[in-house]
Amino acid sequence: MNHPANCIFCKIAAGTVPSRKVYEDDELFAFHDLHPWAPVHFLLIPKAHIPSMAQVGLEHAALLGRMMVLAPQLALEQGCKPYPEGGFRLVSNTGAEGGQEVHHLHFHVIGGPRPWLKG
Ligand code: AMP
Ligand code: ZN
After folding, report:
1. What is the CA(106)–ligand 1 centre distance, in A?
2. Whether this model's pTM surpasses 0.90
């Protein structure tokens, strides 16, 4: 697993690697995916380096809760139509068999009018 010093998403959260920012606060950062599957596709990450959902513990419950509350708000702001006609997909690939490529916890928020490239 990568060390935070070499982690691309830590660098994006710190602003040392550029991204198209969607949202930022003390604990969380969101930015557009480089290779979007759909009209709306951004990634929501904690600024703290947690490798994946497999490392999440009770000490992260409040942080994860904030992410779950924020995701639908940002989805609407980014152009997803409201539930139930619109909506979005929330995905967190975890581990090799889960299809995880970047080992810094992230939620994909994917939505907008279909068809999509994937998903
Ligand atoms: P995964 O780990 O499989 O959930 O996928 C990581 C996602 O991060 C992919 O959808 C990539 O397109 C995206 N990604 C990788 N590097 C960057 C970057 N520098 N800026 C924005 N998105 C990225
Ligand atoms: Zn990281």
Report:
1. 9
2. yes
| Residue 106 among the catalytic residues | yes
Residue 87 lies in a domain: yes
Taking the CA of 32 as reference, the closest ligand is 1
Q: CB under 6 Å to ligand 1: residues?
A: 8, 19, 31, 33-35, 43, 93, 99-102
Q: Among residues 41, 104, 106, 108, which one is catalytic?
A: 106
User: Within 15-119, where are the H helices?
Assistant: 61-77
- How many C-beta atoms surround the C-beta of residue 45 within 10 A? 22
Residues 86 and 110: beta-carbon distance below 8 Å = no
Domain membership of residue 37 (yes or no) is: yes
Buried b (16+ CB within 10 A) or exposed e, 96-115: eeeebebbbbbbbbbbbeee
Per-residue pLDDT tens digits for 79-117: 999 999 999 999 999 999 999 999 999 999 999 999 999
Query: What domain range includes position 74?
Result: 8-111
- Cα 73 → chain centroid: 13
